Amino acid sequence: AIRDQLLAVSGRLDRKPFGKSVMVHITDFMRSNRSPAGSGPLDGDGRRSIYVEGRRNHMEPLLVAFDKPTPFTAIGKRNVSSSPAQPLMMLNNELVHQQAERWAKRLLKDSDRDEAARLEDAYWTAFGRAPESWEREAALAFLAEERRLSAGEDAEWQAWTALAHTLFNVKEFIFIN
Predict the structure, then answer these.
(1) 47: β partners
(2) To 5 degrees, how large is the angle CA 46–CA 79–CA 98?
(3) Helix (H, G, I), strand (E, B) or coil at 47
(4) Residue 66 burial (CB < 10 Å; 0-12/13-18/19+)?
């Protein structure tokens, strides 16, 4: 659900049901002499997680961190855990970074919208609600600081990418209350 939500928020989720599964993305770290010849796209062509191929020796790291059952044993009840690997995966996983970049581009696409409107849109997309006043102030200060630190041609995009990545890591994005 978390991977699918990352794809949905970034605008990349392909909601089409059925069809052929997508080959798992195999990183250089995962590659071995038993690896298949190719590798699937990092975002699985936007397909939902249930359509990502299950390979015994090449499991999707993000899905494994969030308790995807192993494909070689029968599971009567899914495990539910909270481990240090989960927030680390949300901070460092290449797919999470890619989707944050896509979401930032999507937010910046309409140049007529001001920063406050974009921020409102980001909160509605990620959390289904408007930002509270303290969240708005903190996010606007964060964007200003990120712009100052980037101070380049892509400073605006980098600032919004950092904010998108931060919103992905908010507990409210990951857990349903």
Answers:
(1) 14
(2) 25
(3) strand
(4) buried
Rounded Cα distance, 60 and 62, in Å: 6
pLDDT-derived band of residue 57, with 50, 70 and 90 as boundaries? low
State whether residue 135 is helix, strand or coil: helix
CA atoms within 13 A on the CB side of 166: 16
Exposed (0-12), middle (13-18) or buried (19+): which is 61, by Cβ within 10 Å? buried
Q: Is the pLDDT of residue 78 over 60?
A: yes
pTM more than 0.70: yes
Which parts of 59-154 fold into alpha helices (H)?
A: 61-65, 85-92, 94-108, 115-127, 133-150
Query: End-to-end alpha-carbon separation of the chain, Å?
Result: 15
